[in-house]
Amino acid sequence: MPIAEEALAQFPNLPDTSPAGASLDWGWLAGHRSEWGIQPKPGPRGLTMMDIAVGTYGDVPEHPRHRAMAARGADIAEDTPDMGYILNSKTDVWSSNVSELYEEAVARQWSATRDIPWNQLEELPSDLEHAMCQLCTTLSEIEMIASDLPAKWMWRMNHEFIEAKMFLCTQIMDEARHSEVFRKRALANGGGLLKSRGATENLLRTIIEAKTYTQATALLHLLGEGFILDLFRQGEAIAPTEVEKRIFRMTMQDEARHVAYGTMHIRHAVDNDPDVADEIHEALDHGEGALVALGSAPDMSTAIAVLLAGGAENVEEIGFPLQQRLARNQFTSYLARCERAGVSRLDRTTLPLEAMGIDLEQIRKGASFS
Amino acid sequence: MRIDSISFFDHLATLMNSDPNTYELLGDIDLDMAIVMRRPDEDDFRVQLEFSGIECKTVAEIDEGAETATECWIDGSLEDWQGMFDDIAANGQATGEWTLNTITIMGDKIQLKAGDPMGWDKFHRFNQTLQDFVDAAAPALNKEASNVGS
Question: Which of A249, A263, A339 has the CB atom closest to B128's CB atom?
Fold first, then answer.
């Protein structure tokens, strides 16, 4: 291949063949079609993805021309192969906060090995240890769905949406760590892993088998992770020692990021294509039923009730009433996020909202209260 | 040191800003929030806290209602806030029902509020940092108690 004329003019001594006799192409030396030398400046915390989203490098196309793994903003040769992406519209995967969430995720990574004060674990009464182990067994099981699901879809996402894919990579790492930390807690205090049953797996199967990514993310991020976020909040509240409190606080932080992506992704999708709302509602109609089944699944619900009561003895007087109250919080949060995402469920859901004591007016106003 | 005072929160901000090792490990926080302490005489105390990176950049007393312009705010009686800081002083960190998450999830003492669910969720995204921020009050509260006692 001949040396590009522009390069030859600037670097006249370049060879046109390698020492082995292969022809060389120095075209990349000729510069770039767009903004060579744009030089984004680092801010106080370093060089962020927001800092480098400058000029055309920050333009995320609504419908990319290519289906290649090439870096967005590079000169992409016409013969670059099609990678088979099927999510080729920005509305398929994007959220307005995705770059910030990626940076936040990277900055707030933690280690289940190092950052939990494992040596402060205390011997617990048998009922509490069993309850904590059961909760951790279920959580260790369900957390990996939020790794498997994005992994199932990421390789189908157009590479021009790199920030969304990068964020989902952090989510996959987060959820691996959650499965790790709950597995470790189940084993670390003299207990072990307890029961796994069908109701849990049914919800996971509903999520993983969603027909589209938008349906999948509605089920996972908006419904499932929103529910788990509130469950982690409860977990911190009922934690018997500082070890569990720390576990639930750290996992809560990660989960809230995932929910923030999902909420704003759905919002972006619905704003740009209102017809998508029907698809999401259809998924949530089914998902809410599966979620209620999970929430009332015998193992996890009774384990939480025992932890809320501080032991098996007070489960009826304290555990169950408190559990109902916290369930009201969970569904209030979920419905408020649906409003924010632009898929109001208030007139569509079959959840018994009034019986649960949910304040619909508060949700309609968009306000959130504990 | 009165907890319903700007000087108290200035002190907490100074502690955070001078402890990059702790907060770097927890990661950046970007949050504009407020704390409301309701006094018995209804002359309530409101403080805005702006966090950016690993620092608390702003501590400012705000007027009634101005908390609704922040991303989220935590609202409770001065007595309950004092209960929380007493627990922090006694244990070196909030314990049991007195952690920020626990006290707000129960909601019968101090409430977490937000005009937007995204702001409400931010409280959870940065929860450990916020917990460390208030837990850092322990030495100063204990020193003061010790001075009063001596």
Answer: A249
